[in-house]
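Hi support team,

I submitted a single chain yesterday and got back a structure, but I'm not sure I'm reading the C-alpha cell output correctly. Could someone confirm the output below corresponds to the sequence I sent? I've pasted both exactly as they appear in my results page.

Thanks,
R.
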Amino acid sequence: MAHDWVADVLGDPFEQLTLDLGEDSEGPVVATLVRSLARHSVFANLLGDRRPLHDVDVLYVHGWSDYFFQRSLARYWNDRGADFYALDLRKYGRSIRPGQTPGYIADLTTYDEDIAAALIAMGRLGDGAPTGRRLVLIGHSTGGLTLSIWASNHPDAAAALILNSPWLEFQLGVVRGAVAPVVELQSRLRPLGTLPQVDMGFYARAQREAAGRELDVNPEWRPEQTMAVHHGWLAAILAGHAKVAAGLHVSAPVCVLLSQKSAVPARWSDELTRTDSVLVVDDIARAALKLGDSVTIERIPGALHDVFLSRPEARDTAYERMDRWVMGSLGTSRLPLAPGTYD
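Hi R., thanks for writing in. Yes, this is the structure output for that exact sequence:
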C-alpha cells in the first residue's frame, strides 16, 4: 500500500511517497519514491509540450551508503520536459526504520519489489512493460549494478540506461574469483557479520572540497564513513558481479559515465578531489562492455566517483557528455548548456 505524496526534505518542487513492501525478519519494510515533475507553461498546456523529453519518466537509484539528494540532476531532466523520480531503496535514507540493518540485502533481485512499487506509483506497470511514456533508468555505483541486472531481466522496459560509475566488478575479476567462495561461506555462517572498516572518510571530504561548498546531506543517511559492510550483503554484490562477467542482455542503449582516473585513498591528498577513489575505473569500463550490444563509455577528466558531485569543470563536462548522448538517443534537439548550469 502506498501512502500520499507529501513535501520532501529537499524542498519545493520535490515530494515523497512511502511505499509499503511488507515485512522481513527486522519488521516492516518500505521504500521511498521522490519526485520532481516537469513544470508546464500556459502555452504548453494549450498547445502541447514540445520539449524533447516531454514523454519521458526518469527513475534514479542511488549507491551504497547513500540516498537521493542531487537536486541539480533532477533539474536537468525537468528542463527538458521529463518527470524525474528517485528511489531510496529499503533500509537506506528516507526508508530506514529503527531496528533495521542499514542497506542490508541478501539478494539484489529483492530490489525488484522496490522498483515495481516505484513504477506503479509513477503510473506505469510494475514489470516495466512499455506504456505511452518512455522510461529512462539512472543508477549510481551499486544502484547501477542493480538497474543493469533489472534491465537485463526486463527486456524492452527501458528506453535508455545511464550508469554513473556503476560498481560492475570487484576490483580485478581474478580477485573476485578468489574472494567470492570465502565470502559466500561467511554469508551462510554469519550473514550479518561485518568486515573491517576501511573507509577513512576521504571520499566524503573529497566531495565537499570538490563542490566548493558544504553539501546539504543528512549524516545519518549518508555517514562520513560508509555503513558497515556485512558478509551477506557483499555476497549479494559479488553474485551480481558474476552475472555481469557472464554477460547481461540489456536491450536499451547504455551510457556509462566514469572518471578518467582512479586513486587509492591510503592517505589524504588533493588528487582525491579529481579521481574516483572508490572503484578502479578501467576495470569498470571493461566490465561495462558486457552489459549489452549498445554501450557508450564516457570518461570524464577530473571526475569523482559520483561524477555529478565533481569540481565545476568536471561536472559541466559530465552534463555536456550526458546531454549529447541523451539527445542523440532520445531527443530531437539540444538545449544550450552554459558552464555552471547544474551546480
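A quick pointer for reading it: The chain has a mean pLDDT of 93. Let us know if anything else looks off.

Best,
Support desk
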